[in-house]
TrEMBL record:
<keyword id="KW-0233">DNA recombination</keyword>
<dbReference type="GO" id="GO:0005737">
    <property type="term" value="C:cytoplasm"/>
</dbReference>
<dbReference type="InterPro" id="IPR008823">
    <property type="entry name" value="RuvB_wg_C"/>
</dbReference>
<dbReference type="GO" id="GO:0006310">
    <property type="term" value="P:DNA recombination"/>
</dbReference>
<feature type="binding site">
    <location>
        <position position="78"/>
    </location>
    <ligand>
        <name>ATP</name>
    </ligand>
</feature>
<keyword id="KW-0067">ATP-binding</keyword>
<dbReference type="GO" id="GO:0000400">
    <property type="term" value="F:four-way junction DNA binding"/>
</dbReference>
<keyword id="KW-0234">DNA repair</keyword>
<feature type="binding site">
    <location>
        <begin position="139"/>
        <end position="141"/>
    </location>
    <ligand>
        <name>ATP</name>
    </ligand>
</feature>
<dbReference type="GO" id="GO:0009378">
    <property type="term" value="F:four-way junction helicase activity"/>
</dbReference>
<dbReference type="GO" id="GO:0006281">
    <property type="term" value="P:DNA repair"/>
</dbReference>
<feature type="binding site">
    <location>
        <position position="229"/>
    </location>
    <ligand>
        <name>ATP</name>
    </ligand>
</feature>
<dbReference type="InterPro" id="IPR003593">
    <property type="entry name" value="AAA+_ATPase"/>
</dbReference>
<keyword id="KW-0227">DNA damage</keyword>
<feature type="binding site">
    <location>
        <position position="182"/>
    </location>
    <ligand>
        <name>ATP</name>
    </ligand>
</feature>
<feature type="binding site">
    <location>
        <position position="31"/>
    </location>
    <ligand>
        <name>ATP</name>
    </ligand>
</feature>
<feature type="binding site">
    <location>
        <position position="326"/>
    </location>
    <ligand>
        <name>DNA</name>
    </ligand>
</feature>
Length: 356
């Protein structure tokens, strides 16, 4: 298993990971909105996408190819299904890692129906040969299938019916410009505001038959790291707590008690996040400290700390990446209720004391 697999495993074990597990996938299928009107949040993207789809329907044409980028759990898969629903078209779902050869992509493309939506998740992880085949398929609705090997190989052109490709990526910068330029509409998914997550939670609670008051929804939303998938997962865990330890109704006190049991604090930090901050503050005086040293201090792999814990801590303004290493911000000291030592105030002027 490579380090990416190890990082994924570590992330999936956390309650606040934005990655989907088997349970999430099953529940999301039931909670997923079916139309743009039902979709909560992402107002700018919804408005732009609505114009694209309505114009295509009025012309009686296939919708332009769509590229959705953003962090996991923000609704890219949901939007792809909404696109298919709004266009009254079937949808085919696959992912970049599953397409390792041009032949894999050719088999999928050749079986598409006219107007069908092809959703390609993690499109940036597709193999280069398949990527190059996709250029022609997106632009000319045609692929060249190579038959034979060596000097006797022959390229047979295969015409494709018009289709809509919806690509999703968490790392848009890894997409080559020729591929990115072939999408007629691109959208970046933003993290949700707490008030938007409250709407998501109320809608999900209604579908799950969970009685929740506004204060309980606000408590969960504030700890959901701006991600609907995390909000829905926390709602299910709070529901379990309310069912076993309370009367089944979720209010602020019940939600807070439940999330304390699951070690999710008021800002959405979990055990790993706090372990990183505590090591940085208590062992290294707030930094700067190298990533490898910090990972050893918390007993995790370097990649786990960098890919799983750091992005949220940086986004929350609790940790900063500098050329000399990781540095805690004043907000980190305040969040853990610690007083920064005098030397921490001048830490930014130190050299890389704790390595890389």
């Amino acid at each position: 298993m490579n380090w990416e697999d190890e990082t994924t495993t570590a992330a999936d074990a956390r309650l606040v990971t934005p990655s989907a597990d088997t349970e999430d996938s099953a529940v999301e299928a039931a909670l997923r909105p079916r139309t743009l009107d039902e979709f909560v949040g992402q107002e700018r993207v919804r408005q732009q996408l609505d114009l694209v789809l309505r114009a295509a329907r009025q012309r009686g044409a296939t919708a332009d190819h769509v590229l959705l980028s953003g962090a996991p759990g923000l609704g890219k898969t949901t939007l792809s299904m909404i696109i298919a629903s709004e266009m009254n078209a079937p949808i085919r779902i696959t992912s970049g890692p599953a397409i390792q050869h041009a032949g894999d992509l050719a088999a999928i493309l050749s079986s598409l129906q006219e107007g069908e939506v092809l959703f390609l998740d993690e499109i940036h992880r597709m193999s280069r040969p398949a990527e190059e085949m996709l250029y022609m398929a997106m632009e000319d609705f045609r692929v060249d299938v190579i038959v034979g090997k060596g000097p006797g190989a022959t390229a047979i052109p295969l015409e494709l019916p018009p289709f809509t490709l919806v690509g999703a990526t968490t790392r848009a910068g890894l997409l080559p410009p020729p591929l990115r330029d072939r999408f007629g509409f691109t959208a970046h998914m933003e993290f949700y505001e707490p008030v938007e997550l409250e709407r998501v939670i109320h809608r999900s609670a209604q579908l799950l038959d969970v009685e929740i008051d506004p204060d309980g929804a606000a408590e969960i939303a504030g700890r959901s790291r701006g991600t609907p998938r995390i909000a829905n997962r926390l709602l299910r865990r709070v529901r379990d707590y309310a069912q076993v330890e309370a009367d089944g109704r979720v209010d602020r006190e019940v939600a807070a008690a439940a999330l304390q049991v699951y070690e999710v604090d008021t800002r959405g930090l979990d055990r790993l996040d706090r372990a990183v901050l505590q090591a940085l503050l208590k062992l290294f005086g707030g930094g700067p400290v190298g990533l490898s040293t910090l990972a050893v201090a918390v007993g995790e792999e370097r990649e786990t700390v960098e890919e799983v814990a750091e992005p949220f801590l940086v986004r929350e303004g609790l940790l900063a990446r500098t050329p000399r290493g990781r540095v805690a911000t004043p907000a980190a000291w305040a969040h853990l209720g610690l007083t920064p030592p005098q030397q921490a105030q001048g830490a930014s002027g130190q050299q890389g004391l704790f390595g890389t």
